[in-house]
Amino acid sequence: MLRDAMYHGCYILDTFRCQSHDEHDANDQVVSHSFALSKVNSLKGFCSSSRNTHILEQLQDALDNLSYMILDVKELVVFLTSYPCLYRQPYSMHLLLHNCMFGRQMEAELVLNFLLQARPHGAEELEVLPIVGPGRVGKSTLVANVCKDERVRDQFSEILFLSDHDFRDEKLMHLWEGCAKKFQNCTAIKDVRVLVVVEVAGDFNEGEWKRLYSSSKQFLTSGSKIIITSRSKKITKVGTRSALMLKYLSDEAYWYFFKTLAFGSTDPMMHPRMACLAMEIARVLQRPFVTGTITAGLMRDNFDTHFWCKLLAFLRGFVKWHVSRFGEDPSNCLNQNKPAHLRRMIRTSEAIMVYGWYECRSQEEVPKMRLQNLMYGRAKPSGRFETLAWSSPIPPYYSYIFACEIEDLKNTAVKRKRS
């Protein structure tokens, strides 16, 4: 709650700063003293005053919320004084956020509690925790990061990762036989606990799940557990625990993450104009995690007001073009793995046709060409090709590969006119 209140306070404060900065720039402009313009400016001043009042009220609410929380945790602070201090390094925070699972601390604790909690004495059912959430929300990332925790590694002798393609009887039999052979020489076989992580990529099939659960109860020893992840809410009814529902990051948390990565070791307070540009860019992106990480890295590598202005204008035009032409935001298309068209910032007469994308493990070979070089550089491959969108630095270390083709917008427009 305290963390969420901090994100909210930062977001409201930055919104107020950006609005104040924009108004200051507007006041510095040379304006004609004609009667018509003076009436327009007085109206703008009235609207601006109304906005300021609203934001000031939000600032006061955020401050009051934080103040009440700090008063409520004053007893906790007494206990915290016995712990060693952590020296705050705000300008290296981007290195920490880039290499950690952001915004999922509470969810990770819930999964850890499920895995480490001893089963009630006499209980015979195999415990199952369902995790439900939309695509690209971070279900696999959450589970993979929890599974690398030393306490989980000590609790379970084996961690198996399965997909819904492994539900078939012959695959299950082969899987359990392999586990049995692996631990047959173990002196205390009753202490061999297995964690099974099942990722349902498609629609949930209850009949196939029952076969998996039945065979798991037959072969797995007491203390073994199952985590099942899916986009479908149908899996909630197979859990022995309440399902964990994952949602996308809030606007406030996403802005904190995006700003930290975009500015790196630079203090945003020293660059108010660029902070406003970054906030507008974050709003245009609409919170997709992968795209936000790529864009923030591009901004940090090109830390220049002119480039950020150009990038904001490009992204606004690109999203508007895609919605008007295809009726949908490009981020929604990519999130659902549907075909999408990406514009190019330098080669404006060309677009990148994305037919789809897939994930691959870090040890697998990935394309050398990167998506940001296509969108913001001059690279021009021919025919159909694959490009690396992003490689995650945290478990499960997925690389995201796009299947693409360069499309000439001028030729496409001519063909449509002829048809």
Task: Give the helices and strands, then pairings.
Layout: H1 2-28, H2 35-72, H3 74-80, H4 93-98, H5 105-116, E1 127-132, H6 139-147, H7 150-155, E2 158-163, H8 169-182, E3 194-200, H9 206-219, E4 225-230, E5 244-245, H10 251-263, H11 272-285, H12 289-301, H13 305-326, H14 330-335, E6 340-343, E7 350-360, H15 371-376, E8 384-391, E9 399-408, H16 409-418
Parallel strand pairs: 1-4, 1-5, 2-3, 3-4
Antiparallel strand pairs: 6-7, 7-9, 8-9
Helix pairs in contact: 1-2, 1-10, 1-11, 5-6, 8-9, 10-11, 10-12, 11-13
List keywords for this structure.
419 residues, alpha/beta, five-stranded parallel sheet, four-stranded antiparallel sheet, 16 helices, globular
Give an overview of the whole structure.
It is a single chain. The chain contains 16 helices and nine strands. The protein has helices at 2-28, 35-72, 74-80, 93-98, 105-116, 139-147, 150-155, 169-182, 206-219, 251-263, 272-285, 289-301, 305-326, 330-335, 371-376, 409-418; strands spanning 127-132, 158-163, 194-200, 225-230, 244-245, 340-343, 350-360, 384-391, 399-408. Helix 8 (169-182) runs parallel beside helix 9 (206-219). It is globular and about 70 Å long. Residues 30-47 have low confidence and may be disordered.
